[in-house]
Amino acid sequence: xxxxxxxxxxxxxxxxxxxxxxxxxxxxxxxxxxxxxxxxxxxxxxxxxxxxxxxxxxxxxxxxxxxxxxxxxxxxxxxxxxxxxxxxxxxxxxxxxxxxxxxxxxxxxxxxxxxxxxxxxxxxxxxxxxxxxxxxxxxxxxxxxxxxxxxxxxxxxxxxxxxxxxxxxxxxxxxxxxxxxxxxxxxxxxxxxxxxxxxxxxxxxxxxxxxxxxxxxxxxxxxxxxxxxxx
Length: 231
Known about the structure:
Structural class: mainly alpha
Helix content: over 70%
Strand content: under 5%
Radius of gyration: 18 Å
CATH class: Mainly Alpha
Shape: globular
Number of strands: 2
CATH superfamily: CDP-alcohol phosphotransferase transmembrane (TM) domain
Distance between the termini: 29 Å
CATH architecture: Up-down Bundle
CATH topology: Four Helix Bundle (Hemerythrin (Met), subunit A)
Largest sheet: 2 strands, antiparallel
Oligomer: single chain
């Protein structure tokens, strides 16, 4: 029973490890790999909370661990990625600017953690750090096709949007089958398009993460339909 209760935390730690690996790949110049690992972290992050509720394994430890993982995978890792692919040309100033993203993200997470549970189920205050980090990862993947000014504008905008008071609708209460399937298909198609013909050059972890994510969404889809028919 204790092992089952620990499953959500394992996914959270997997997310954290993806962030660490992403930083390592970015440092070695393998930027596409680094971006893909951030996207894998997003997959794991989207699963740990739902698994915790499904297994009735919600805990304060899990919530704190999730925040720590998010600041690494979607705060520090994307900022390193943007620095190594673009801001490096500005030397010390570029490094200082790149370091602002995790600072804004950490403030965003801290503010979210002290918000009331009721409001957090209906909407987010400011852009979630997970979404912001994922956008930076996608920008890196398509960076060669976009002007550098676009990266600068989006990076700056995301920093301020994370700490803004703008209300972003939350999908936590939206049934997963409807939206999870769309997200899975989108990510799957994206990976195929990006790595078509170069399947041997991205992390083999995707061979494990993607099928697990698809299987999880399929299970939720079947469970959701059965529950609907029962009601």
